[in-house]
Hints:
The complex is a heterodimer of chains A (259) and B (324). Chain A has 259 residues and is an alpha/beta fold. Chain A has helices at residues 37-52, 70-80, 98-109, 131-138, 193-199, 209-213, 241-255, and strands at 2-6, 9-11, 33-35, 58-65, 84-89, 116-120, 142-153, 156-162, 167-174, 177-181, 204-208, 220-226, 235-236. Chain A has a single domain (2-213), classed as HUPs (Rossmann fold), CATH 3.40.50. In chain A, 29% of the residues lie in helices and 29% in strands. In chain A, β4, α2 and β5 (84-89) form a beta-alpha-beta unit. Chain A is globular, with a radius of gyration of 21 Å. Chain A starts with a strand and ends with a helix. With 324 residues, chain B is an alpha/beta fold. Helix content of chain B is 29%, strand content 27%. In chain B, the strands form three sheets. Chain B has a nine-stranded mixed beta sheet with strand order 9-8-7-10-6-1-4-5-11. Chain B has a five-stranded parallel beta sheet with strand order 15-14-16-17-18. In chain B, strands 2-3 form a two-stranded antiparallel ribbon. In chain B, α3 crosses α4 (98-111) and α5 (221-231) runs parallel beside α9 (309-323). The longest helix of chain B is centred in the first third of the chain and has 17 residues, at 16-32. Chains A and B meet through α3, α4, β7, β9 and β12 of A and α4, β7, β8, β9 and β12 of B.
Amino acid sequence: MKIAVLVKQVPGSESALRVSAEEHWVEESALDFEMNESDSYALEEALLIKEKVADGGEVVVVSMGPAERTPKVIREALAKGADRGIHIQEEPPYETDPFLISEIFAAALRDEQFDLILSGLQSADLAAGQTGVILGEFLGMSTATLVMATELQDGSIKVKRELESGWSQWITLPLPASITIQSGLNQPRYPSLRGIMGAKKKEIKALSKADLIAGSAALQSWERLYIHKKEKRTEMIEGDLNQVVTRLVNVLRTEIKVL
Amino acid sequence: MDILVVLENRNGALHRMSLEAIAAAQALARDLNLTVAALVWGPQAQNLAREAATKKVDEVLALEHELLEKYSSDGYAEALKQVIEQETPRYVLVGHTYMVRDYFPKVSARIRKPFIGDVVAYRVEDGAPVFTRQVFNAKLVVDVVPQVDPPVLVSFQSATFQADAVEAGAAPVREITVALEAEQIKTQSEPPFQEAAGDVDLSSAEVIVSVGRGIGKEENIPVAEELAKAMGAELGSSRPVVDAGWLPSSRQVGSSGQSVAPKLYLALGISGAIQHVVGMKGSKNVVAINKDPEAPIFEIADYGIVGDLLEIVPKLTEAIKEQS
């Protein structure tokens, strides 16, 4: 069983974001980066699947991003138990079109002949939620999204898909398959000290986005990134604890009228 | 036609977000002077066609095929690809539902045209629409433009357009066909089921006290429970709290939980991720307490307090108890 996991480094959810001067990305200097949340669940699921398979196999972590910071997220995955890494090096301006991003990943992964590709259902930064599916199409794989459980079978994988309003559905996909993972389906492990030490010796293959892109162009592009105007006027209740609580009780009683 | 609006079949009826998609198509048609066709398909497509024909669209396209009776991403993507090739629309519009998230990227891959997803607004510039999406945890927005010839696929976020803004009309229905083979559908699906019996109906609650990740740990849940009790409110939660096992999934508000519209939604330590917001933005009043002044929940709150909910909420509970 040969499994690829796509992980992405994104600004931490508590990061204060500043749009950069050219209005196409955020100022990265002040940001803490972390593994995209649903990607960390995808990684854990890949490791769990590998551990269940009799002949083991291989978990390959794949990430696209700048040379300066991306190796950190790949090392983190290797420390948790992935076997090797592929780093698609990309310097700013970053690609934002999910179709072109998928073409780049397809070019990087085609020859590897993966049985399974797992990825988080969407990234916190671009939030497109398309790459896992389009990549699967380009590689001739079956696809499923929003997966909440997996059961590997002989030549296929059965997955529980999340539908709307608390509904779910089991579907069976023939391998090879590309599956996008919903957060919460497992408990991502912490790397062990031995894992951290071992990760230093594991291979990370570096590829260049420019070599993989091969004349392809984006189908959609970002024109301008900005802070959106508020739809509502928010009254911020300020002051010391007693003032805040007094005002809030007053609001609940006389304005919203729920007390 | 110029605009193809794809309607979603939910157990033989129109999905609520499909009505919003019709409103989006009508707005774009007005702005750009374009014609609109609505596509209905899936089980009992004729019933949906009758409903769609009462809306102000130029035409309703009804597609029935035994392989579309049950949803599959392969079948739906292949069928829509063929409809797009036959009808050559410039814009293919749809609501950003879970089903659309599953098969629209596949259509994009197959026709090699852009899918601009989860759009929250559009404006017309030089005779062409510019689409606005939320990015970076909905803290920022970006204007997106297609870089290739039509068609472009666009999905709209829930509540971007209003279902009750749909204009009525009388449209002719035209039956269309596609060529689908069973071998084109790689997956096999079992019937949908409901995960947990919904023992809590939050949709009729007058007041909801809702807990997010900011509550910190399971041991702090009673802080919110006591406030809910003092206010006669139902307890709700965001997804991370359910994922952590601190509250049952029957309490979850958001795209994968319940949609609510109470008189008051009191959000405690909820950041306001878009998946949560789509389930509660119909609330009449939103009060948010969060320690992060940049939390997106403040964007939609009527009243906001930046601070430690573990300090504020017990005091608030005490003050409310004293009142009554």
